[in-house]
Amino acid sequence: MTSRILILTVFIFALVSGSIAQDSLQVTQDSSKSKKTSFLSLNSVYVEAGYEYGLLPFLGDSTAPNQNFRTFGNVGVQIKSLPVNIGFLYNSNQANIGINNYFNVSFDAQLYKQQQLEKLYKKRQVFDDSLLQVGKSKDLLTKKLKYLELIEQNKIAFPIDSGMFADKWGQLPGFNWMDSLNNLPGVSSYTLEDLPIPYDQKELLLNKILAYKTGILQNMEIKDSTMESLEKYLNMNPDSIVQNKAYSFVPGMSKFQKIVGTINKFDIGLCYPDYSKYLISQIPLRGINLEMSTGKFFGAFSHGTVQPNIFFSNNLIGNTLNSAQNAFNFFDFTNTDLGRKVTSVKLGLGQKNDNHIHAGVLYGFGDLSYTDTLNNGLEKNAVFEIDGMIRGKWWEAQVIYGRSQLQTMQIGEQAQTSLFQELMSFKDRSNALFAQVGTQISKTSTELELYGRYVEPLFESFGVGFMRSDNLRFQVKVSQKLGKKGKISAFYRRENDNVLQWYDFQNVISSWGLSGTYRPTKSWRFRADLRPLTFNSELADSTFGSQSYIATGIASFQKRHKKTRILSNTMFSFYQFSQNDISQTYLTAGNQTQIIINSKLNLDISYNYFQTSDTSTIPASNLFSLGAGYTMAKLKIHGNLKLAAGEQSTELGGGFDLSYKLLKYLTIKTTIEKVVAGNFYTQYYLENLQKFPYYCYGRIVILF
């Protein structure tokens, strides 16, 4: 119930946003006429909600037809000067493969910095004018100072009637005798020394002149400081300002703007922290993620829940009722207690991708098992990392060291030593090291990169995914530019486990690759990639191995002639897997061509060929598709015909898409399709295709 209320709230918010959008835009347009600005306005809205029925793509379920309510979108909100994005995805059928429900609120740091950049560009002219006025004011002060020095040195007459000091002279305290001084005959021809006034008054006049000089000098220091700040700002590239390198030098920048300008990432909900190698990386986090940089200092903080697996929890009843419920379901708030809780902090000097020295720590805890309901023990995890990078003009080097400690306890069991004491004891083989060196040879336009990674068997971090412990890897990569039109790259990688020889077997994986791009003309672009891979498992008395070959090629063409535009992509992919005497091959080739005329009429033609020696799927198939679409003021329609020809049968299919703009910001879309064999998501679900080969999807879209 909670999830449905939240979804309905977000959708209604987006719906009413359309009605207030015009008012928000009007407030923005009238901002120059009034100092009052809207506290909340909309930058952009895209929300889609609909219902799909039939042979659903990527659904890990053998039943057909199936049904699903789906809504997703992104709402860009401007809260005063802060741009915020609200994104979400929800599927009522939570067993979709590769589609995870999520909710996310994030500060749009890039948009904020772009907005600040635009404001700074506008201020540059104002600052140019200010610099000119400050310069003129300083010139006048310099003239006054020089004039006073000449008076002190008795080189010119005393300036009773000088207009230069008319604004300040009479304001000096103690000059009530100026009227009598004006009555002296020929006073403007007297120097200060010959002025016919008493000595004490002459000394007082000299002191006042000295005080006036001091005031001028102080004012000139202020002018110098202002000019230095303005010149420093005007001589800087505004792009560097929004890269957190120069906020403190921008005149008129408030403390709040300086603080917000240091934020690179701030997310609540589904987060993807990427500031660390061994603390938290390559894993979704449900919680909060913050990353800040001032140029000199860097800081990052993450807190939330990471899931130990994708599809199952320790709630067996829930798993049954929800069809292997998706663990990243952000709208099922009853399951927020499932998963490992982690907190990560990283601080240091320098920026993340520049010269720096950073250190961080992670603390996490969770259940021993999330599938075995009888195992209710607890495990705790602590990880320490230190990260350093040095960059030269043509080279860079980075070294990262990490250490972890895992502590497991059964219910009621107490640890003899604290987790962090064990972490710093350096007794266990739970260390990790990463080193990378890259260089660029300017004369030959050659790039060289070397990196190695060593992870000991007992290293484990709750915040790191897709990284094996007990692993040693190294790689060398070379890239070479071929003039202005092409580039080729080559690499070699080798890795193995059992690095400490604790076991009787060892797995070794070695691979190499060649890739290249070439663009002979503006219209044509070619890309190719070849990657063989060898896997060997060496036992005490035998060796088990396999080989794989992966080759891909893409040719792209685009051409515009008057009001006609042609886009075409041709792709080839080959994969071969060999193990002992068994070999399986998969070959895919195809072309997709689109012709757009007058931005209204579009024609698309495609052909895809698939062949494999794998008997568990279609041995061979040909898929032809011919489509046409037309765009009108409020109506867009597109239809296609498909012909699938394979060794087993020949099928005819197709469908149409209809889009109608009901209101200014509201569009209704409908998709109806008869699916044929040969589509990617039907290769392994021929049984479902035979049961119900139809797919229908109706949705409402809010867009502005």
Structure description:
The chain has 704 residues and is α+β, with helices and mostly antiparallel strands. Helices cover 21% and strands 45% of the residues. It has nine helices and 28 strands. A hairpin with a 2-residue loop joins strand 20 (543-561) and strand 21. Helix 2 (109-152) runs antiparallel to helix 4 and helix 2 packs across helix 5. It is extended and about 125 Å long. Mean pLDDT is 79; it is low at 1-36, 161-187 and 309-336.
Unreliable stretches (pLDDT < 50, length at least 5) are 1-36, 161-187, 309-336
Q: DSSP strand (E) fraction?
A: over 45%
- Our measurement of the CA-to-CA distance between the termini, rounded to an integer number of angstroms, reads 30 Å
Number of strands: 28
The Cα radius of gyration reads 36 Å
Give the mean pLDDT.
79
Shape: extended
Structural class: alpha+beta
Question: Which descriptors apply to this entry?
Answer:
two-stranded parallel ribbon, alpha+beta, 704 residues, 9 helices, disordered N terminus, 28 strands
What order do the helices and strands come in, and which of them pair?
Elements: H1 2-29, E1 40-54, E2 66-79, E3 82-91, E4 102-107, H2 109-152, H3 178-182, H4 199-234, H5 238-245, H6 255-261, E5 263-271, E6 280-281, E7 285-293, E8 297-306, H7 316-321, E9 340-350, E10 356-367, E11 378-391, E12 395-409, H8 419-423, E13 431-441, E14 446-455, E15 463-464, E16 471-482, E17 486-496, E18 506-518, E19 524-538, E20 543-561, E21 564-579, E22 582-597, E23 601-612, E24 620-631, E25 635-646, E26 650-661, E27 666-674, H9 686-691, E28 694-703
Parallel strand pairs: 6-15
Antiparallel strand pairs: 1-2, 1-28, 2-3, 3-4, 4-5, 5-7, 7-8, 8-9, 9-10, 10-11, 11-12, 12-13, 13-14, 14-16, 16-17, 17-18, 18-19, 19-20, 20-21, 21-22, 22-23, 23-24, 24-25, 25-26, 26-27, 27-28
